[in-house]
Amino acid sequence: MKFFYYTFLIIILPISHVKASLLQDSVPIHDTFTITAEKIGETRTINVWVPESYTKKKDYLPVMYMADGGIKEDFLHIAETFAKLIKAKSIPPTILVGIENTQRRRDLTGFTEVAEDKTIAPVVGGAEKFRAFIQDELFPEIAKRYRISRKRGIMGESLAGLFVMETLMLKPEMFDNYIAFDPSFWWNNQYLIRMADSRLSKLTRPEKRLWFAGSSTKGIAENTRKLAVLLKAENYRHLKWHYADEPDEQHDSIFKATKSQAIQWTLGEK
What we know:
Layout lengths: L1 H23 L6 E7 L4 E8 L11 E6 L8 H13 L7 E5 L4 H4 L19 H19 L2 E10 L1 H12 L6 E5 L5 H14 L7 E7 L6 H14 L4 E7 L8 H15 L2
Parallel strand pairs: 3-4, 3-5, 5-6, 6-7, 7-8
Antiparallel strand pairs: 1-2, 2-4
């Protein structure tokens, strides 16, 4: 029963979320290009949105990367949210880079010893290669094409949230800002929760910023709350964090319900 429930969360709900997104979100002006991902062995599609000021000024801008960044995924509504927050001067001008999926469950999951985890897709556990693609191939490509500063962030929901949190713990130097909505902490018997203290206690300068949220969904809420309790108790020196406990939200609603506050807290505070 547990496996059926988790499979429903990561397979069925994203489909309905995509359909709703396509009905509501307009297509912003953006760039689309492909890149040969040698680390993964395939061609990937990248969508890039730049704020209006980018063409009017010569500033070097920070970048927010996102998994699930396809036009039929979450790129449209996140670009719209960035545009609104920048126009309201709630956050500084920021470039948004969306990475379109090919095999989502392969790229966003790390190693697992749990047999049930391995049945969600023909291949799982590709997060290390996907992370290497972002760092070694996508970062340089974005730097060639756009005026960017050294500030980088990453955001994601569900399995993409798991990838965000795993990156913070395994390769924290990749990004300055981390945003995770309903991260799938149940993966590999909650291994990220179990390793959190040993990893986060080793963070060094510069300070990392983490915003994460948990809905009322079983398998999600208890684990995000566990992490919040740990962060409060340990008060890690080089991590500034905020946890949004959202008991009125479900797994398929929390992303759109909390995205504005997440982005504004992460990028807007001085």
